[in-house]
Amino acid sequence: MGPSNLTPYFFRAKATFDKEDITMATLVTRNRFPVLSRLATNHKGPISAAVHINDDETKDEVIKEVRELYASNPDMQQYVDLHLILDKYDRQFNLWRNIAKLFARTDYIMMLDVDFHLCTDLRKSIRSNPAIMDRLRSGSTALVVPAFEFAAQDDGNDWRTFPTNKKDLSELVENGKIGMFHNFWFKGHGSTNYTHWYDADKLYKVTHYDFSYEPYIIYKKDGTPWCDERFIGYGANKAACLYEIYLSGIEYWVLPNDFLIHQTHRYPEDARRKERQYNRKLYTNYREEVCLRYARKFYMAGEWESPKAENLKKECAKVHGFQRNFATTTE
């Protein structure tokens, strides 16, 4: 990959944000511009958006569209920090995630895909709860917001018809109209334990973690791992981010009343298949690498026997050869 032309704060939000607010850190390409505008109006809070534009003959036209988008919606102007990435490389999702995180102006961020609609006022439910805020301040907790998807893709086209409370959502679940996001790939969101969530009325811990788990999380910006930028394209990119966050000692706790719903759009299936094959191999090697890196870090810092290392011990025991290799590096 070559260098990118990055312009931080190509547009800077007019609002002054409270440091303890929650920034939606997201990434956007040309075909999702209207969805970003919708997010700004729905969220009415800080957004840090990494916007990728291909460095080709269309770039001037697309930059013009960005300017028009920003000018057309006062909520974009009020709440959105927009960071422009100009290069020839598509789908560098983890690079874009890191840029959105780096330039966020609040202490906490949500790693959000722009296609998800925020159905509840999660900022209010979090910021009004002292116990949850203490967890975020500690840097040892990431909050999971359960993600849903309509069974009939056409039902996911109009966000104005989406449920806005758990009761209405549960009725749709019972009628088979909506369920866990990407339920064909249980490992992706199954660790959230949706069966438990439907009856939950308080925060609960993720206890059956899977290395393919890729929830949407809210967590502390400073002192947390960055997404590994070797993952290019579809497959494992977000799971790798969340794996390293988990191994670093951060626990995942699920919010009991807030949720997201996916807004239907088409995926480039041919690219997804090829890129997933490559990233599957990369992720296998990456898991061993990150296990050894954090194990040695904890060992050298005298934290190997601390609670901070518990996630790593459980997960890395599943990685072939980890125990032998770790023993070799600490002799």
Q: How is the secondary structure organized here?
A:
Elements: E1 5-11, E2 22-28, H1 33-43, E3 47-54, H2 59-72, H3 74-79, E4 80-87, H4 93-102, E5 108-111, E6 116-118, H5 122-127, H6 130-138, E7 141-145, E8 147-150, H7 166-174, E9 178-180, H8 186-189, H9 194-197, E10 204-205, E11 216-220, H10 237-247, E12 251-254, E13 260-262, H11 269-300, H12 310-316, H13 322-329
Parallel strand pairs: 2-3, 2-5, 3-4, 7-12, 8-13
Antiparallel strand pairs: 1-4, 5-11, 6-13, 7-11, 8-9, 10-12
Helix pairs in contact: 10-11, 11-12, 11-13
Written overview of the protein:
The protein has 13 helices and 13 strands. The protein is of the alpha/beta class. The chain has a nine-stranded mixed beta sheet with strand order 1-4-3-2-5-11-7-12-10. Helix 10 packs parallel to helix 11 and helix 11 (269-300) crosses helix 13 (322-329).
Q: What is the oligomer described by this structure?
A: single chain
How much is the radius of gyration in Å?
Answer: 20 Å
Question: Strand fraction band?
Answer: 15-25%
What composes the largest sheet?
Answer: 9 strands, mixed
As laid out across the biggest beta sheet, the strand order is 1-4-3-2-5-11-7-12-10
Low-confidence stretches: none
Number of helices: 13
- How far is the N terminus from the C terminus? 37 Å
**Global structural class:** alpha/beta
How many beta strands in the DSSP annotation?
13
Apparent shape: globular
Average pLDDT works out at: 94
Helix content: 25-40%
H and E order:
EEHEHHEHEEHHEEHEHHEEHEEHHH
